[in-house]
Amino acid sequence: MLIVSTRQEAPDGFRNMTEEEIANDFLAIDTDKNYFITKNEWMIHFIKFYEKDLESLDAEGPDSIMLKIQELSDEFDKIDIDGNFQIDFLEFKEFYAKNVYISE
Prior knowledge:
alpha+beta; 5 helices
């Protein structure tokens, strides 16, 4: 299980991802394998997760998917430090190393 947090330390029961794990996640999102993640690749990758949990989305309300899409878009913009509308590996690694944790 993965969590995203703004804490500087991994919460109990979680650890920082290794560089290899981060690289594997990057390559899973980079579907055209050009070593950049576009916003479209980012959005499609994560929207697929919401498809598996429609019951929770329905419970949150009729506009919940739109809110999730906006959150994904905002997160992409936050990770795209140089503002060139794509995430390179260094930007991705910087974000994941500080904000994404995996259960032990």
